[in-house]
Amino acid sequence: MYFTWLDSNSWLLEISGKNILIDPWLVGALTFGNLNWLFKGERRNPRPIPQKIDLILLSQGLEDHAHPETLKQLNKNIPVVGSPNAAKVAQGLGYTQVRALEQGTTYCLENQIEIKALPGSPIGPTTIENAYLLKDLTTGNTVYYEPHGYHAPELKEMAAIDVVITPLINISLPLVGPIIRGQQTALDLAKLVHPQVMLPTAEAGDVVYEGLLVSLLKVSGNLEDFRSMLARENLSTRVLNPQPGERFEVSLQQRPVSVV
């Protein structure tokens, strides 16, 4: 199983011989509603578009997960699976194979990878976007992805999970509170699903952010803090520190099979 972190929440996951592009932002600037004065992210170096993409997986419909400029650049015949809000974005951009995945339902990619949608991040007072559990049907290995640190209690029924991609730091705004939940929330998740490996997401990488909103953000915690938290709980989970744009392999141990 191979991973490439492409900054922010963007990942390329190579699993069961398939390449899955997750929440891609590869070209252009990142803004919300074209309000550059409020928030703008720009890459020091643009990320090349992967040559082989078997599926685009979108967790949310917001620009930092369903980035319009990037989606305009990609082949519109690539299958897209996303939350209902993200599916609307892809459909509006002309994608021909779009599946809106409701929470609790699954999508199977060529009988090799099962993708289950779970409750993820709340967006506004009434909308909850998607988290995903991906399962390699040939090996049984699993990967869980949630980009803001909101984890559904039903994950306990799906433990153990091999690889978890989630924030490991906290980012908050005055008066609003946490917008990215890591540290304690990630520790609770580790105790719940006992992952072999955890990978941090939602960090800047090679991106430069500016704007009024950025000046108000408060960041707390780091990977070493989180490793210490795991050690105090006697958890053997490995925390990796991926470098932007560098492909790396995650080796997993075969879990013991329970005999009834």
UniProtKB/TrEMBL annotation:
Pfam families: Lactamase_B_3. It comes from the Bacteria. InterPro entries: RibonucZ/Hydroxyglut_hydro (IPR036866). Keywords: Membrane, Transmembrane, Transmembrane helix. Gene3D superfamilies: Ribonuclease Z/Hydroxyacylglutathione hydrolase-like. The chain crosses the membrane at residues 20-39. This is Zn-dependent hydrolase.
